[in-house]
């Protein structure tokens, strides 16, 4: 479970860093929430992953942080990449 804890923490930091490095208009072009909203979600999720542990009393917050950054990595990030790349022939 310790490996899962550190892997989730790395994913949270990656998601926040990726959201920080993207253009603001790409989020609206991808029909997702705004950049500040995703920065708040991924930043809060990464903070929850850092602050809590899966076996701590705040495990519910750890799980919520994990879900938040996973949604960004699985849903938002590929859409942003697709929008910024342009049409593929």
Automatic annotation (TrEMBL):
The keyword Transmembrane applies. The chain crosses the membrane at residues 6-24, 59-76. Keywords: Membrane, Transmembrane, Transmembrane helix. Pfam families: DUF2516 (PF10724). InterPro entries: DUF2516. This is DUF2516 family protein. It comes from Saccharothrix syringae.
């Amino acid at each position: 479970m310790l490996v899962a804890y550190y892997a989730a923490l790395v994913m949270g930091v990656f998601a926040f860093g990726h959201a920080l490095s993207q253009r603001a208009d790409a989020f609206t072009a991808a029909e997702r929430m705004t950049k500040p909203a995703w920065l708040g979600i991924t930043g809060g999720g990464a903070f929850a992953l850092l602050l809590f542990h899966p076996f701590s009393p705040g495990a519910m917050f750890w799980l919520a942080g994990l879900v938040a950054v996973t949604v960004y990595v699985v849903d938002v990030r590929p859409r942003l990449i697709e929008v910024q790349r342009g049409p593929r022939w």
